Amino acid sequence: MRNKKANIIAVIVPRLSKGPCAEFLSEIQELACVKGFGVIVLQSLESVIKEIECINNTSDGSVEGIIILRTKFMRTPSFYKNVQVLESNGIPFGIVHYETINSTGTAYLSGIGKKVFSWLISQINNKIDLKSG
Fold this sequence. Notes:
By secondary structure, the protein is an alpha/beta fold.
């Protein structure tokens, strides 16, 4: 595990080519820039297995937190395994589930990026406070 603060947030999306993902990422990127964070983007290709790979690839201390955008609300053993991996590694994370409610899904995700990003930043700051205090 690295000791230096990464100031990077990973965002895992189902597919970059889908309209809602692009809007969501744009919102996260703007917020991250204001707070001094960089963003790396990984695609799960709508696969739970690939999502686990993305989580494992970013669980080495190279990121401060992870936001996962999912197209389906999947309460499966695999979903819980993803959450357990994140929790066991002590990485703050936020998960946004959505179903497309119009042709782009943009209306539903509008503003959600700000909420999940703000929550994630508070979790990262809490983690930093616990380490230094």
